[in-house]
Structure formats: C-alpha cells, structure tokens
Amino acid sequence: MSNATTTPLLDRMQPASGGRVILDAATREPIGRAPEHTVADLDDALARARAAQPGWEALGHERRSELLGAVADRIDEYAEQLAELLSREQGKPLNGPNARFEVGACSAWLRATAATVLEPEVVVDSDGVHAELSYRAIGVVGAIGPWNWPMMIAIWQIAPALRMGNTVVVKPSEYTPLSVLALLDVMNEVLPPDVLIGVAGDRDVGARLASHPGVDKVMFTGSTATGRRIIEGSAQNLARLTLELGGNDAGIVLPGADPAAIAEGLFWGAFINTGQTCAALKRLYVHDSIYDGVVDALAAVTARMPMGNGLDEANVLGPLQNQLQFDIVSRLVEDARTNGGRVVTGGAPATELGELFYPITLIADVSDGLALVDEEQFGPVLPIIRYSDVDDAVASANRLDAGLGASVWGDRDAALAVAARVHAGTVWINSHGGVHPMIPFGGVKGSGYGLEFGVEGLKAVSVPRVING
Predict the structure, then answer these.
(1) What pTM was computed for the model?
(2) Residues with active-site annotation
C-alpha cells in the first residue's frame, strides 16, 4: 500500500510556509499541514466567486452537467489517494461503509445530481391566465461542513449548488481540512477558475461566512448549537439556509421481529463510521418479548467486527476523530454505568489500539432521562431500552427536540403504521440511515430545516421565478 504522507495529492495541500499540523486520528502522528486562512482570505474568495458566477450560470444546465460528470470521473481517478487521506485524517477504515465507500459516494452523487432534471412548472393555464414557475441560481453559496463525513457531505452541498449555476465557497471543519481541500483540488482540475473555492479557517471564518453580505445561501451540517449561531448570523445578510443539525435518532423494534434477522442492520444503523453519523441510530427501544434476544444478537454481531487503524484492510471500525468527542463518549458511558446501566460489550477505552479508540459499547437496562439516552452520543455507544406498550415507545421516540431520522423494525405493515406516528424527517422501515440521491432528506424540530437531494435539493439552492402572462 502507498504511504499517504508522500502522495502528490497530499503534497499539493501543503501551504508554502506555516499552517496547522493535522494528526492521524489512529496513530496521532502528523499527516501534514493545513493552511490557516483568515477572514481577509474569505473576503477575497467570495469576491472571486461572485465575479465567476454569471459566467458559470450562463453555461446552461447541459454544459454544467457535463462538467460535473467529468469531475466525477476525475475523482474516480484519484479515489485511492483520497480514501487513504480520509482514513488517516478522519479515522474511518478504508473498507466497509467507510473511506472508499465515501469517496465512491462523492462521484456517484455528482453523477446523479448532474442527471436530475428540474423542469419549469405551469401552475395555471386557464381563463386567459398562464403562469409558469421556474428556478434559477441564487448566486454564491457558502458551504460549511462537518468532520464525520467531510468529503461526502461537502459534495451534498456542492453538487446541487453548482448544478443550478451557483458558485460555492467551502469552509471545511477544522478537524478534517486536508480531506476536503484535496477533494476540491481534484475537482478544480476540471471546473473553471473560482467556481469552487475552499477556505480552511477557524470558527471566526465560519461565523463570517454565515453573515457575510457576499453570501446568498448558507448550507450547514453540524451541531444544533452551531446551527443556531448560523441562523443569528444570517440575519445580517438574509441568506437562505439549509441546516442539517444534530440528531438523536430512535429505533423501535416491534414484537414479533426476528432478532437474528435484524441484528446486523441494527448494528450498522447505529455504528456506521463508529457511530459518528448525524442520522445514526442512537437509542433503541425493544419490546419486552424479544428484548434479551435483540441484546444477545447485537452483542454477537459486535464480536465479529474488527476495530483498529483504518489503513489495515481487515478493519471496519476506527477511532473517534477527536479528543472532544472521545471525552463525551467516555462521560456518557460512565454516567450510564453509575446509574445502573448494564454494560453488555465494551465500556472502557481501548487503549491497546490507540489514544482515541473506544470499543463498541452496548448498554442495556436503561431508561429515558438518562444522559446517554437524552443526549446525542455521536460515538460507538448504544443504549437499549425495554418497553411493553408500543404507544409508550412512540411517545419516547418523540419526546426529544431532535427529529432527523428514526426507524421501525418488524412486520412491514405494522411498522408503517407506527412510522406514521413518529416525528422525524425520515423514518426507515427495517433499516436505518440509508440515503439516496433522489430521495429528499432533512430534519424537523431541533434537527434543522430544508431539504437536500433530488429535485427538492435543486430547488433548495435556487430562487423561484414566476412569469405570469
């Protein structure tokens, strides 16, 4: 295997001097240096993006779609380099639903978005009145991304924005700037100058991007607390917003479900990316009649999932990405243990693997009100709660302010009836967390607002125009 620290692509990311050292999530050894852009750099980037936008929009949908397809091809050419860099910086292994999967999703999403058609809609055509609704570019989109799926979520923001004729300035997370800057560098081998610009700064740069008068739309994926600050900042520029914020997704396992049949789906619903996913399954409600069977089946799946350095081809689970998240997970596990939770697997840091490794931890016999249940753990820990009445499980699922996703497991007809009562942007049946480029995705309540993906995603990065006459 090639050493990602010496790849030409990574070398292209290094500033000529200075910069901030980025550490390997698994080994804590330096990977390279990330540029430290300033608010002045952001001002310059936005001015360049503004100047480039009319020409990009003027190319038309067909040409822009062709270019996005060519960008996808170029990402595929660099796929292994990108995956290795992502694995080191973010921590996710190369294999399983992880780094290679994420890079592949980038090119797949670009192609799907390029192929999505948004036709003008005739809304009235009668009694001498003809009105047609169409959509055009907003202008400049500011995209602020997270550290958990840094490349894929960047593409979720970039692809529809470019497709509709906007230019984009991307602010990656301070934890994973190299991955995103490398992706943008590859994309810019194909795109015209200044259509897509990365600015790798600190929180001051992100805050300025949200409130900057040169931004027409802000897309943000991250915590609810940061989302609230972005809303406040956008009052300065009246930028349109798409916010995909924190989740605390509930899963409900109905009586009659087969524990062995659903165990692996439950596992990956909860622990994809070692649990560091906004729409992961984060609290599991299981009917009393099959509770022990589900706990045992999940423990059996956990036992056969290897964790370790992501560049080891055998591993499918990696470390937590940063110390702050590691500390949150550790605190919630200790609180659950102190308050009577039964640790079925894991329960203590895996120091033999490295500084930020925490094993898959199943905690049974807990209830609503416990910090691990009520707070988003965003890591490899799953509380499993027993219930005896489905109405109570639905009430528990709905009781928190989060509403990104949820799932119901069991007989499909029964599950559909329960799903209709759950307050979440997406409710999956017998799976959890899967997304599709043509299926709209977004949260409710404290999990944000606005839709991404498909036709609705294109509308979200556009402004409507009605021609009446």
Answers:
(1) 0.95
(2) 244, 278
Phi/psi of residue 165, nearest 5 degrees: 100, 10
Contact (Cβ atoms closer than 8 angstroms) between residue 379 and residue 274:
yes
Q: How far is CA 248 from the centre of its chain?
A: 14
3-state secondary structure 349-364: CCCCCCCCCCCCEEEE
Q: What is the pLDDT of residues 59-94, one digit of tens each?
A: 999 999 999 999 999 999 999 999 999 999 999 999
Q: C-alpha angle with apex 316: 312 to 317, nearest 5 degrees?
A: 100
DSSP secondary structure of 41-53: HHHHHHHHHHHHH
How confident is the model over 21-35, as pLDDT tens digits? Answer: 999 999 999 999 999
Assess contact for 88 and 310: CB atoms under 8 A: yes
Category of 411 on φ-ψ map: left (φ > 0), alpha (ψ -120 to 50) or beta: beta
Which pLDDT band holds residue 1 (cuts at 50, 70, 90)?
very low
Q: Domains of the chain by range and CATH? A: 4-245+447-468 (3.40.605.10), 249-429 (3.40.309.10)
At 180-231, the pLDDT tens digits run: 999 999 999 999 999 999 999 998 999 999 999 999 999 999 999 999 999 9
- The structure tokens listed for 423 are 């307050």
